[in-house]
Backbone:
C-alpha cells in the first residue's frame, strides 16, 4: 500500500491545507509543554496525541458519553499513533457509571475484556522451530506467529451498546476525515519508524512509512491513509461485524498465513468466533480509598492491589518522594507481587486463577511481614494463597520486552468515566499492515517455553486462549463509591510500576495529577530495581545498593494519562515523556 504524502519542504505544501498543518503543529507543541495542571469543570480527555484528544472532546461537546469519546479518541490514535494501538489489537476498559441523586445508590464500575486470542491452530509449541529450539525474541516479535485475533472493536461495540449515547457511526467521523485529508507525522512517530529494525522488511508497511529512498517519513510530512478510511467507513456503517466477517476478516487471515516471516495459520472462522467479555471488576481497599482494576487475564489489577495492601503498614505519607526509603519499600512489595503474578495469573477461562486467595488480607499480611525496612530480600518466591486449587504449574517470567501501548482516560458531563489501556504489542505490532492498520503481535505475551521439567506454565499457548497482560487501567473511588481518579499507562510489564507510582504520588503524597505522572519512574519486577535514567533517582543508587538492591538505570518511558476529581471539576495529567495532553471544558 502506498500512502499519499507530501514531504515537509515549502514547495511540497502547495495546494495543501496550511492551516490544518500549522494547527497540528501547535497542538503537538501544546502537548509537549505540560505547563501546570490542566483543569476542567464539565468533562475531560487525557490521551497520547493532541489530535485524538480533540476528537474525544468534540464528541463530549456533542453530548456524548465517556465511552463515545473513548471510541472517537481511539480511532484517531489508530491513525496518528499506529505504532501503539488500533483496530488490529486489543484493550481492557473500565467504565464508571456515576450514581444518581439517591445517596444509597452507589456508582457501578464495569470491566470489559478485549484481549486478543490465539487462533484454533495454535499450540504450546507455537514459538518452537523445526529443530525444537525456541525462536529468539528478536525474530518472533515480528511476523505471523505473534498475531492474535484482534479484540478491540468487539469490546468497544459491547461497551457502546451498554454505555453509548451518540450513534456508533458518528464516532468514526473525525478519524475518517483525517485519514482521507491527511495528518502530519509527529516527532514521536518519526522516531519510532526510524528506530524500528523490522518495519522496513514488510512491503505494505515499507511503502507506507518510508520515502521512496527508504528513509523514515520526516517530521511534518502530510500523510493520508485512504485504505484505513475505507475500513473505518465499513465498520461505522455495519458495526464490528464488518471487521470480524467478510472481506476484512479474510484479508487479515490471509496476511497472517501468507507473510514471508513466521507465517501462521489463522482462518476467517477464528476471527468470526472472537467474543469480547464483560468481567467482574476487581476492587480492593487501600487506606481510605478503593482501588479498582481489571481482573485476569491481565495481571495488573491483582498486582497493584497486592502491592498497595502490603505497603499499608508503612506510612508512606511521611516518607519523602524520590527517597531511597520510598523506592526500597515499593520495590520489595513489588517483588512479592511479581513472584505471585508469574506463578498464578493467566487466562481465567483456561486456568483457575486464585484471585480471592491472592487478595486475602491475612495472606498479604504474611507476605508483607517479609519486607524489611533496612534490607532487600533478594529474589522473592511465590506464596501459597489460601484455597489454592492448582499447584503443579511452573513459574513464568519471560515477558521482559519493549511494548508500545497507549492509554485513554475520559470523564463526561454526567460524571461517568473510562480508563482504557489499548495496544498492538511491540512498536507497530507484528509489522503486518492490512487495509491501513497494523496487526498485533500479542501472542508473544505467552510463555515462549511452555514447560519446565515437564511442569506446564499457566501462561503457555493454547487455542483461543488470551495471553497474560500487565495492562492496568485503574479507577480510584472513595469508600462511598465516588470517583477519585482514572489512570493507566503503556509500558509492558513495567505498566504495573508506572501506575503504582502515580497512585502513591497522588494519594499518599497528595501530588496533583500532572505532578504524580511526571514523577521519576522506579520499579522492580522481581529482578533488579530499575531507576529512570536522567532523573534525580540516579543519585539513590549507592544507598539502595547498601540495602542490598541490584540496580539498573535505564530509560523508563511511561505514557501515563489520568484524570482526578478536584473541587468544582477535574484536573488532568499527561506524561511529559510522550506527546499526549489532557484537555477539557
Residues:
Amino acid at each position: 500500500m502506498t500512502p499519499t504524502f507530501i514531504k515537509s519542504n515549502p514547495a511540497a505544501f502547495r495546494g495543501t491545507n496550511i492551516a490544518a498543518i500549522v494547527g497540528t503543529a501547535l497542538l503537538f507543541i501544546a502537548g509537549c509543554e505540560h505547563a501546570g495542571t490542566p483543569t476542567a469543570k464539565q468533562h475531560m480527555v487525557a490521551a497520547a496525541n493532541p489530535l485524538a484528544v480533540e476528537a474525544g472532546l468534540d464528541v463530549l461537546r456533542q453530548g456524548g458519553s465517556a465511552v463515545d469519546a473513548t471510541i472517537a479518541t481511539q480511532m484517531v490514535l489508530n491513525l496518528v499513533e499506529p505504532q501503539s494501538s488500533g483496530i488490529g489489537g486489543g484493550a481492557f476498559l473500565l467504565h464508571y457509571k456515576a450514581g444518581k441523586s439517591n445517596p444509597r445508590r452507589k456508582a457501578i464500575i464495569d470491566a470489559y475484556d478485549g484481549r486478543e486470542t490465539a487462533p484454533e491452530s495454535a499450540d504450546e509449541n507455537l514459538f518452537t522451530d523445526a529443530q525444537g529450539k525456541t525462536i529468539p525474541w528478536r525474530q518472533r516479535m515480528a511476523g505471523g506467529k505473534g498475531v492474535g485475533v484482534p479484540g478491540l472493536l468487539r469490546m468497544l461495540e459491547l461497551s457502546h451498546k451498554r454505555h453509548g449515547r451518540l450513534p456508533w457511526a458518528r464516532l468514526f467521523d473525525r478519524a475518517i476525515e483525517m485519514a482521507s485529508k491527511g495528518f502530519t507525522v509527529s516527532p514521536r512517530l518519526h522516531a519510532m519508524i526510524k528506530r524500528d529494525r523490522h518495519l522496513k522488511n514488510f512491503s505494505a508497511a515499507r511503502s507506507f512509512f518510508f520515502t521512496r529512498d527508504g528513509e523514515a517519513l520526516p517530521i511534518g510530512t502530510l500523510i493520508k491513509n485512504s485504505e484505513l478510511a475505507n475500513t473505518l467507513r465499513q465498520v461505522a456503517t455495519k458495526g464490528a461485524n464488518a471487521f470480524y466477517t467478510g472481506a476484512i476478516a479474510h484479508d487479515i487471515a490471509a496476511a497472517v498465513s501468507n507473510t514471508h516471516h513466521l507465517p501462521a495459520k489463522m482462518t476467517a472462522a477464528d476471527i468470526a468466533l472472537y467474543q469480547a467479555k464483560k468481567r467482574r471488576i476487581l476492587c480492593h481497599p487501600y487506606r481510605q480509598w478503593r482501588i479498582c482494576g481489571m481482573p485476569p487475564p491481565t495481571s495488573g489489577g491483582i498486582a497493584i492491589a497486592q502491592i498497595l495492601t502490603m505497603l499499608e503498614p508503612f506510612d508512606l505519607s511521611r516518607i519523602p518522594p524520590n527517597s531511597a526509603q520510598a523506592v526500597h519499600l515499593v520495590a520489595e512489595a513489588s517483588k512479592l507481587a511479581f513472584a505471585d503474578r508469574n506463578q498464578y495469573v493467566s487466562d481465567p477461562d483456561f486456568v483457575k486463577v486464585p484471585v480471592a486467595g491472592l487478595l486475602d488480607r491475612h495472606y498479604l499480611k504474611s507476605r508483607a511481614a517479609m519486607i524489611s525496612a533496612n534490607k532487600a530480600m533478594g529474589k522473592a518466591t511465590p506464596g501459597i494463597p489460601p484455597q489454592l486449587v492448582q499447584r503443579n504449574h511452573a513459574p513464568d517470567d519471560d515477558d521482559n520486552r519493549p511494548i508500545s501501548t497507549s492509554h485513554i482516560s475520559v470523564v463526561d458531563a454526567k460524571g461517568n468515566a473510562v480508563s482504557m489501556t489499548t495496544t498492538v504489542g511491540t512498536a507497530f505490532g507484528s509489522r503486518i499492515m492490512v487495509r491501513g492498520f497494523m496487526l498485533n503481535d500479542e501472542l508473544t505475551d505467552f510463555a515462549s517455553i511452555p514447560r519446565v521439567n515437564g511442569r506446564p506454565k499457566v501462561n503457555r499457548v493454547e487455542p483461543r486462549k488470551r495471553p497474560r497482560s500487565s495492562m492496568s487501567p485503574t479507577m480510584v473511588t472513595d469508600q462511598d463509591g465516588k470517583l477519585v481518579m482514572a489512570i493507566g499507562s503503556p509500558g509492558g510489564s513495567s505498566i504495573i510500576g508506572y501506575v503504582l507510582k502515580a497512585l502513591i504520588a497522588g494519594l499518599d503524597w497528595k501530588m496533583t495529577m500532572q505532578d504524580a505522572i511526571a514523577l521519576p519512574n522506579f520499579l522492580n519486577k522481581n529482578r533488579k530495581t530499575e531507576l529512570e535514567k536522567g532523573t534525580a533517582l540516579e543519585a539513590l543508587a549507592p544507598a539502595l545498593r547498601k540495602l542490598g538492591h541490584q540496580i539498573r538505570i535505564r530509560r523508563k518511558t511511561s505514557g501515563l494519562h489520568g484524570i482526578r476529581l478536584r473541587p468544582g471539576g477535574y484536573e488532568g495529567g499527561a506524561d511529559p515523556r510522550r506527546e499526549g495532553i489532557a484537555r477539557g471544558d
Observations:
- The two ends are 39 Å apart (CA to CA).
